[in-house]
Structure to design on (370 residues):
């Protein structure tokens, strides 16, 4: 940038001299002039600020510049660098729970926070109320998937307050506690019985005349993130019969999109079942890389997204782009050793190396006709 002399951020290009400026810098520069006197800082030509445009081709080249992460020394594209450093698996961080002093790499701290005994000091509902109500926009780099489908606390007004439902609560007990009638609580929350109360996380109750809320300490967003990761990891491990470390790896791969992680876990389970083995060596190594925070495509080495494909011979994993660009080809199951009459003519995806090797073996083993 010709103004701040730093790396250009969200650049704007002068239409005359093609000098580059940060969008914020050139906007601040123009705001310091009367409109008729505003000019380019480099060539001094007068232009309207709207004439400074974003060059898409140049931006693509800037985004493709590789920068080394200060934690793992991995080369990362410039447009993904800020998010990578915020989530780098090798950065040493503290356990998010206030009373725990454990420190480790981020790749291990997630697994620690799932089993950390200090997590019992927090109520998920209370943390959600404290953080989501305050808005998690303070942490723009956090994955939005973590906050997907998270319940929203009941909104109180000047005449009501929010009560977190406990296992022993009843409508009569709440009426005594807050000095109101049962029918008022039922009307505010559309409840018909005590049994309906147990299906609620929070309920609204009339505000007592002398009510004064207690000031609670502010809960960091990191606590909600840790509790949410724990909740999703335990749920995926329970539903798909996985180790917690494996469940966490699938969630990391999909940026904690639970539906995507579940789909990948089922896909890998089906792959293992079709090949009559628990875990092929290549997939085991792949999961180890995921635990360390890495999951590159075997073809282009780019980070893997939700859509991916396996080589049915060696187990190498490719992104969807590589899978559709002839890196994976169709091969008859008969060449993989399948002898079932119903299956021999079915086709599966294999990488180019396995395709050449299996076709060569097939030609060598087939009898020559003289």
């Amino acid at each position: 940038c010709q103004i701040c002399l730093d790396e250009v951020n969200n650049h704007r290009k002068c239409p005359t001299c093609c000098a580059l400026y940060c969008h914020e810098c050139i906007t601040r520069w123009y705001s310091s002039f009367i409109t008729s006197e505003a000019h380019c800082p480099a060539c001094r030509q007068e232009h309207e600020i709207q004439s400074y445009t974003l060059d898409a081709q140049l931006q693509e080249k800037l985004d493709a510049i590789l920068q080394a992460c200060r934690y793992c020394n991995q080369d990362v594209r410039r447009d993904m660098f800020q998010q990578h450093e915020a989530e780098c698996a090798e950065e040493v961080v503290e356990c998010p729970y206030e009373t725990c002093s454990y420190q480790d790499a981020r790749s291990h701290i997630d697994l620690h926070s799932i089993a950390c005994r200090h997590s019992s000091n927090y109520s998920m509902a209370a943390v959600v109320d404290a953080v989501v109500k305050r808005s998690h926009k303070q942490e723009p780099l956090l994955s939005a998937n973590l906050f997907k489908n998270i319940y929203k606390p009941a909104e109180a007004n000047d005449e009501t307050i929010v009560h977190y439902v406990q296992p022993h609560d009843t409508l009569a007990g709440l009426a005594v506690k807050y000095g109101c009638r049962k029918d008022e609580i039922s009307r505010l929350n559309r409840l018909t019985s005590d049994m309906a109360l147990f299906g609620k996380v929070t309920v609204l109750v009339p505000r007592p005349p002398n009510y004064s809320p207690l000031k609670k300490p502010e809960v960091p967003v990191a606590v909600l993130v840790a509790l949410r990761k724990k909740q999703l990891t335990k749920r995926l491990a329970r539903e798909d019969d996985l180790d917690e470390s494996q469940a966490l790896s699938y969630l990391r791969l999909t940026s904690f999109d639970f539906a995507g992680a579940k789909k990948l876990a089922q896909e890998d389970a089906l792959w293992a079942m079709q090949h009559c083995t628990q875990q092929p060596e290549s997939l085991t190594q792949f999961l180890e890389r995921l635990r360390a925070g890495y999951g590159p495509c075997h073809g282009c080495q780019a980070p893997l997204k939700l859509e991916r494909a396996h080589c049915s011979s060696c187990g190498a994993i490719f992104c969807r782009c590589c899978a559709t660009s002839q890196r994976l080809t169709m091969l008859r199951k008969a060449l993989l050793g399948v002898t079932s009459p119903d299956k021999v003519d079915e086709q599966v995806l294999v990488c180019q190396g396995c395709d050449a090797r299996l076709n060569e073996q097939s030609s060598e083993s087939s009898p020559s006709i003289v």
DSSP finds 14 helices and twelve strands in the chain. Residues 135-142, 277-281 have pLDDT under 50 and may be disordered. The radius of gyration is 29 Å.
